[in-house]
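One such shown below:
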Amino acid sequence: MSTASETSSGQIRAAVLVPLFLDADTQACVVLTRRRTDLRRHAGEISFPGGRQDPHDHQLSDTALREAEEEIGLDRSQVEVLGELTPVSTFATNYLIHPFVGMIPAGQAWRLSPLEVDAVLELPLRALREGKTRTRLERRGISFETDAYVVDQHLIWGATARIIAELLERAEAIIPRSPPAPPRGFPTPSRSRRSS
């Protein structure tokens, strides 16, 4: 029997926040975190702030907002949630990750969780588009090719790269041209993507 934090197929429900802001030149930027290198899982990897659903989270968007507040000190009152991208599955951790896109004001003073986060990255979407590549990685003795993004020597791959791919596909429709008025009616897709 699955629990409230699991899907019917036994996957663990999780959520991430995909924070976006417009810089001084109204260029859209996304916020990511670099995990500490001494963590047991995903050490040193770049990801969105997020984690598994807590029993006290009323809905998965609450999970994303709570985790962003815990990991990088982003006050949920500063986030205008626009909607959800396609859920992404992972093999290594058996998570079903729900990405929630949110607009935030520029110039945040980040407060990093000393237990989880090594750095906060603010990357222009244009740089991510230009940095898309295909690379070969090795994990747990297995070599494989995967889509990835390289920006300023930061390598982004896996579930985070798949979330970014959809974000870039839909950016023109979901990102406001000026900070005050984010669009409404951001559709929630029904399909999910699985890791390769």
Q: What stands out?
A: The longest strand covers residues 12-22. The chain has a mean pLDDT of 85.
